[in-house]
């Protein structure tokens, strides 16, 4: 079985690309969603993650499911973890 490997990207990268593709500014999206422009800018720069609420807002405004946006966030967060830090944690028998 072939495993496809991918490099997770911050959801802000996807958001930034989507905004460019449809010709919408970060400020216009922020106004449409009822959030501060700073919030959208920080997401696009990878300085802020997505909450479930923001995932729902992006889903309603741009399409895709809220789960799509949350999966981007979860995959990004997991990719940032140094797994070696947890090597000393052993499974607990049930």
Q: What is Rg?
A: 16 Å
Silhouette = elongated
Looking at the structure, the CATH topology is 434 Repressor (Amino-terminal Domain)
CATH class wording: Mainly Alpha
- End-to-end distance, in Å? 31 Å
CATH architecture: Orthogonal Bundle
Helix content: 55-70%
Low-confidence stretches are: none
**Total number of β-strand segments?**
0
CATH superfamily: lambda repressor-like DNA-binding domains
How many domain regions?
1
Helix and strand content put the structural class at mainly alpha
The string of secondary-structure elements, in order, is: HHHHH
Mean pLDDT across every amino acid position: 93
**Major β-sheet, in short?**
none
Strand % is: under 5%
Number of helices: 5
Supply database-style keywords:
94 residues; mainly alpha; 434 Repressor (Amino-terminal Domain); 56% helix
What does this structure look like?
The chain is mainly α and 94 residues long. The chain has one domain: lambda repressor-like DNA-binding domains (434 Repressor (Amino-terminal Domain)), CATH 1.10.260. It has helices at 11-22, 26-33, 37-44, 52-62, 66-79. Helix 1 packs across helix 3 (37-44), helix 2 (26-33) crosses helix 3 and helix 4 packs across helix 5.
């Amino acid at each position: 079985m072939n495993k496809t490997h991918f490099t997770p990207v911050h959801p802000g990268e996807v958001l930034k690309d989507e905004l460019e593709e449809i010709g919408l500014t970060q400020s216009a999206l922020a106004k449409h969603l009822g959030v501060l422009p700073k919030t959208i800018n920080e997401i696009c720069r990878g300085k802020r993650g997505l909450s479930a609420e923001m995932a729902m807002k992006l889903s309603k405004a741009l399409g895709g499911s809220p789960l799509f946006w949350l999966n981007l966030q979860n995959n990004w967060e997991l990719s940032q973890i140094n797994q070696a830090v947890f090597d000393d944690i052993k499974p607990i028998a049930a």
